[in-house]
């Protein structure tokens, strides 16, 4: 077996991991920021951005909509550390984000505009997967004005939050059952590797550890998390 095949084999989930990774939560989602229309859009879009397959669950199974909801409803979503005094004008690509919207305002404004655009057509959440992919590609390509939000800016924000929710520590509300970490073989946030420092050439096969794990390995999500820096 060559190195690439060995690596792929090592990353293949066990039957228990696959069951955890591909089984959606039996509890209905409880959102703090997203309304029903926004939640339907988020759930449908992240399911296409990181879809499930026959081995692993995708963004929906990993609780990414919950992560996005908590981020938008918290200090970061409110733009706690954003510069908010203008002037608001188009800048060079090197100048970064130049819009007057907080992350929460940007997201809500864009989703309302999308719903308005599709009012006399099929709502995004009810489209076929192929149609959803095509619409997301349109947003990514740019050229749409979503209530003052460039579609490519909204897509970039949605994609970034989806990735963060899939791979960040479960303490932030996503990466349910550490699905993203299990998929890539990431051990998580172990506080100490002292007992392993003199062991070389071995696979690290321990259960992934979260910042919020208790002594029984259960994750306790923190509802009050300091805002992250923008950009």
SS element count, helices:
8
What is the C-alpha radius of gyration, as a whole number of Å? 20 Å
Distance between the termini: 43 Å
Helix and strand run: HHHHHHEEHH
Give the topology.
Blueprint: H1 3-11, H2 15-22, H3 36-49, H4 64-72, H5 103-117, H6 129-141, E1 145-146, E2 149-150, H7 151-167, H8 179-184
Antiparallel strand pairs: 1-2
Structural descriptors:
2% strand; single chain; disordered C terminus; 231 residues; disordered N terminus; two-stranded antiparallel ribbon; mainly alpha; 39% helix
What would your notes on this structure say?
The chain is mainly alpha-helical. Helix content is 39%, strand content 2%. The protein has 8 helices and 2 strands. It has helices spanning 3-11, 15-22, 36-49, 64-72, 103-117, 129-141, 151-167, 179-184, and strands at residues 145-146, 149-150. It has a two-stranded antiparallel ribbon. Strand 1 and strand 2 form a beta hairpin. The chain is globular and about 60 Å long. The termini are far apart. The model is unreliable at 1-10, 15-26 and 225-231 (pLDDT under 50).
């Amino acid at each position: 077996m060559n190195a690439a095949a060995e690596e792929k084999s090592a990353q293949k989930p066990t039957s228990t991991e696959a069951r955890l990774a591909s089984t959606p939560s039996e509890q209905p989602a409880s959102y703090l920021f997203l309304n029903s229309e926004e939640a339907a859009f988020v759930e449908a879009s992240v399911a296409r951005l990181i879809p499930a397959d026959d081995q692993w669950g995708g963004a929906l199974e990993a609780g990414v909509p919950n992560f996005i909801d908590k981020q938008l409803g918290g200090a970061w979503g409110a733009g706690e550390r954003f510069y908010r005094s203008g002037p608001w004008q188009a800048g060079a690509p090197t100048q970064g984000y130049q819009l007057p919207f907080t992350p929460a305002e940007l997201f809500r404004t864009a989703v309302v505009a999308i719903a308005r655009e599709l009012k006399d057509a099929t709502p995004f959440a009810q489209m076929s997967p192929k149609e959803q992919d095509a619409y997301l590609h349109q947003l990514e390509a740019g050229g749409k004005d979503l209530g003052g939000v460039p579609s490519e800016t909204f897509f970039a924000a949605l994609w970034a939050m989806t990735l963060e929710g899939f791979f960040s520590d479960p303490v932030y509300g996503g990466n349910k059952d550490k699905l993203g970490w299990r998929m890539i073989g990431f051990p998580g946030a172990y506080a100490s590797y002292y007992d392993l420092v003199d062991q070389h050439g071995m696979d690290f096969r321990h259960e992934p550890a979260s910042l919020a794990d208790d002594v029984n390995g259960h994750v306790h999500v923190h509802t009050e998390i300091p805002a992250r820096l923008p950009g």
